[in-house]
Design brief:
The protein contains ten helices and nine strands. The model has no long low-confidence stretch (mean pLDDT 88). With 235 residues, the protein is an alpha/beta fold.
């Protein structure tokens, strides 16, 4: 897979900072895990860190960002300059397909934790094959076994209310216990869903025994994504 520069995405993300504020805060709360994580992080698909928590990044001595976009590290250093420019966190960047580069990254740092940042929910868009996507996800589980890893990824997306701070959406507890089914009807009602919604085929990203949280994301006015985020401890 070749390099991919998406200036339109970066411009849209920059302009959407207010609309995405509650989503970023929810992601930051999820990232604030009490566990003692390793001192290095492999961050896959992080782009420029538009949705990432600076406080979370500052927990690490070293971060390896793997992304198709060669602009990603430059923009991430600007977005999170308070924790990255100080020199306390070393940021390295590999340009390329995260699936192809992950084995090399894991081999080079056998202690690092791994975070899939809104990456695995897009996998079916690249493969155009749900069975191929399922196979890749099973391979990911095997690759990261034995270390801390987490993922925030799309579950559902579609049209809804244009009010990004709608109370029915943000006032509810969206925590999911282990093996708890997705409260799909409640999710859709809270954002006044209508029209056609997409299932991103990511129900098997997280193992059934881990808890998670659902996070609404008003990606553009009148269109919503529901994210699922969870951490998997070493096994």
């Amino acid at each position: 897979m070749q390099r991919h520069v998406d200036l339109g995405w970066h411009w849209r993300a920059y302009r959407a900072r207010q609309r995405w504020q509650l989503t970023r805060q929810a992601i930051a709360r999820w990232l604030d895990v009490p566990a003692a994580l390793p001192t290095s992080l492999i961050l896959l698909g992080g782009s420029a860190g538009w949705m990432m928590s600076g406080a979370f990044l500052a927990r690490f001595d070293r971060i390896l960002l793997i992304d198709l976009d060669p602009l990603a590290p430059w923009l991430m250093r600007w977005n999170h300059r308070h924790c990255l420019r100080s020199g306390a966190v070393g940021l390295k960047h590999w340009v390329g397909d995260a699936h192809e580069l992950l084995p090399k990254a894991l081999a080079e740092d056998q202690q690092a934790c791994v975070l899939f940042d809104n990456f695995l929910g897009l996998d079916s868009m690249y493969t155009r094959d749900l069975q191929a996507t399922a196979k890749r996800l099973r391979r990911v589980h095997e690759q990261v076994k034995g270390r801390w890893w987490g993922s925030v990824h799309d579950r559902l997306s579609g049209p809804g209310t244009s009010q990004w701070n709608c109370a029915p959406c943000w006032s509810q507890d969206w925590s999911l216990g282990a093996a708890q089914p997705l409260p799909q009807q409640r999710m859709l009602q809270s954002v006044q869903a209508h029209g056609e919604w997409i299932d991103h085929g990511t129900e098997a990203v997280l193992p059934a025994h881990v808890s998670s949280v659902l996070i609404p994301w008003p990606i553009v006015a009148g269109r919503w994504h529901w994210l699922q985020a969870g951490w998997v401890p070493p096994q």
